[in-house]
C-alpha cells in the first residue's frame, strides 16, 4: 500500500440525483476503506425512512482519470448519435 496519500475519515458525496419516482437516487462518492482511497457510483434506495446503498460500481481512485476520459467520450458519442440533446443534459427524469 502506498503511503503519504491523504485518507478520508468519512465518505464525501460529490453529487447525487434522483433516478426514478420510487425514491431511488444515484450518488457519486469518494471514500477510504481499509486504507484504500475509492470512488463509487451507486444506486441508493429508500427503506424504513432511510436511503440505503444498493448496486453500483466501486474502484480505486487511481482509475478515476481513465473513467472520466471514457465517460467524456461516451457523452460525445451519445450527442453525435442524437441519444441525448441539450434539453436532456442535467435534467432529472
Describe the overall structure:
By secondary structure, this protein is of the alpha+beta class. It is 18% helix and 42% strand. It is built from 1 helix and 4 strands. The protein has one helix spanning 64-80; strands spanning 12-18, 25-33, 36-47, 50-60. Strands 1-2-3-4 form a 4-stranded antiparallel beta sheet, with no helix packed on it. It is flat. The chain starts with 11 loop residues before the first strand and ends in a 13-residue tail after the last helix.
Describe the structure concisely for a colleague:
The protein is an alpha+beta fold and 93 residues long. It contains 1 helix and 4 strands, in the order ββββα.
Number of strands: 4
Instruction: Note the run of SSEs as H and E.
Output: EEEEH
Structural class: alpha+beta
Largest sheet: 4 strands, antiparallel
- Side by side, the strands of the main sheet go 1-2-3-4
Output mean pLDDT: 91
Label this structure with key terms.
93 residues, alpha+beta, 4-stranded antiparallel β-sheet, 4 strands, flat
Amino acid at each position: 500500500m502506498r503511503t503519504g496519500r491523504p485518507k478520508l475519515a468519512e465518505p464525501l458525496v460529490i453529487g447525487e440525483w434522483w433516478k426514478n419516482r420510487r425514491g431511488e437516487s444515484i450518488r457519486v462518492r469518494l471514500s477510504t476503506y481499509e486504507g484504500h482511497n475509492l470512488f463509487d457510483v451507486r444506486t441508493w434506495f429508500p427503506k424504513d425512512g432511510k436511503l440505503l446503498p444498493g448496486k453500483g460500481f466501486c474502484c480505486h481512485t487511481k482509475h478515476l482519470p481513465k473513467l472520466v476520459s471514457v465517460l467524456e467520450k461516451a457523452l460525445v458519442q451519445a450527442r453525435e448519435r442524437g441519444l441525448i440533446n441539450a434539453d436532456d443534459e442535467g435534467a432529472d427524469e
